[in-house]
Amino acid sequence: MSIQTEVVIVGAGPCGLFQVFELGLLGIKAHILDSLPVPGGQCAELYPEKPIYDIPALPSVGAQELVDRLLEQIRPFGAEMHFGHEVTAVRRRDDGRFNVHTAGGLEFDAGAVIIAGGVGSFQPRRLGVEGAEHFEGSQIAYRVRSAAEYHGKRLVIFGGGDSALDWTLALAERASSLALVHRRAEFRAAPASVAKMQQLVAAGRMRLLEGTAQSLIIENAALAGVRVKDNAGATHELPAERLLAFFGLAPKLGPIAEWGLELEKRALKVDTEKFQTSVPGIFAVGDINTYPGKKKLILSGFHEAALAAFAVQAHLYPGKRQFLQYTTTSPVMHQRLGVADPPPQ
Ligand SMILES: Cc1cc2nc3c(=O)[nH]c(=O)nc-3n(C[C@H](O)[C@H](O)[C@H](O)COP(=O)(O)OP(=O)(O)OC[C@H]3O[C@@H](n4cnc5c(N)ncnc54)[C@H](O)[C@@H]3O)c2cc1C
User: Fold this and answer.
1) What is the pLDDT of residues 177-232, one digit of tens each?
2) Distance CA 255, CA 267 (A)
3) Which of 14, 169, 226, 320 is the most exposed place for a label (fewest CB within 10 A)?
4) Would you tell me how many other CB atoms lie within 10 Å of the CB of residue 182?
């Protein structure tokens, strides 16, 4: 059964989150979806610990802290959030409303759609060896769903960042054997984790190899190991029932490119009054859009979200008069925000 809503927001990065706020101030309800399991887009996924210095009035704010603050700011509007749901299709119906579908089978009936898809949905970078796709989701994985799956197994981990090192440390004692393969001697992970891993290697509890995956060893249609080419050109056969690869996430514009919207250099063309795409009723804010002078900055996306909210209101309720109200003084906005009216001065 499809979920009825005024607006569906595709993407819960900083701009999608702030879009909930701007719509909420105007009394418009939204559902927000993201293919990632958590909100925050690039801020949460790519640089959560880094400080950002160009958010107005916040001289320095950690990227994850910015996401947390946005979540707190939008809480009064009770937007329903759906994480781990990639939006695969958006179709305009003859009555002007939209059918929105996700890969996981959710279905929405929305009056308007706002795409805040950033640089696309994040997908793990995959192990680039022939035949890997047959074992993905069974013996080859790009994230750990349950650590217990690896207990007592021969395991090879690929990567040199925090995820690769954290899981190496967590599983070294639990796997029946463990090898870490990284393409170079320098690691991007926290130095303390690298030091602990090197202690395990020195104690003979795991193996470390500098090199790259070359091919899979397959026996009786099951994965039995992996061949790794080291940086001197020698090939090593590592027996393994499980491979974990942590090569980071790469954005993929993905399904958005197939919704019939006008694109320019992999971004959605919008006007700068409404931030509407080439299809009336579908808007785009944040890194996903393009227009003359576009700058891919969070504060630009915030401005776009404010204007898009007014445009969405006009689209949903064409006859309605629009007022610019201040959050400082508007009783109706105070009601929507759930704050008491300040006493008159
Ligand atoms: C290292 C780094 C440092 C940065 N520093 C700054 C800075 O100092 N100041 C600044 O202003 N900007 C900075 N930026 C840029 C800033 O992070 C982006 O401008 C901002 O994240 C854009 O927000 P967004 O909401 O438009 O998109 P994103 O943050 O990219 O979020 C988009 C979300 O949409 C989701 N999505 C996409 N397609 C789908 C789909 N089909 N279905 C469901 N979900 C989907 C994605 O999974 C993602 O979570 C930095 C970027 C990087 C990488």
Assistant:
1) 999 999 999 999 999 999 999 999 999 999 999 999 999 999 999 999 999 999 99
2) 13
3) 320
4) 24
Top mutation candidate among 42, 70, 121, 297 for ligand 1, by most atoms within 8 Å of CB: 42
| One-letter identity of residue 207 | R
For residue 157, give both structure tokens: 């981990």
Q: Hey, whose CA ends up nearest to atom 35 of ligand 1?
A: 11
- Among left, alpha and beta (phi > 0; psi -120 to 50; other), residue 220 is left
Model pTM?
0.78
**Within 13 Å, how many C-alpha atoms sit on residue 32's CB side?**
30
pLDDT digits (tens, 9 = 90+) for 11-69: 999 999 999 999 999 999 999 999 888 999 999 988 888 899 999 999 999 999 999 99
DSSP state, 136?
B
**Backbone phi, then psi, for 205, in 5-degree steps?**
-90, -15
**Which residue type does 257 have?**
A
C-alpha–C-alpha distance, residues 294 and 317, integer Å:
29
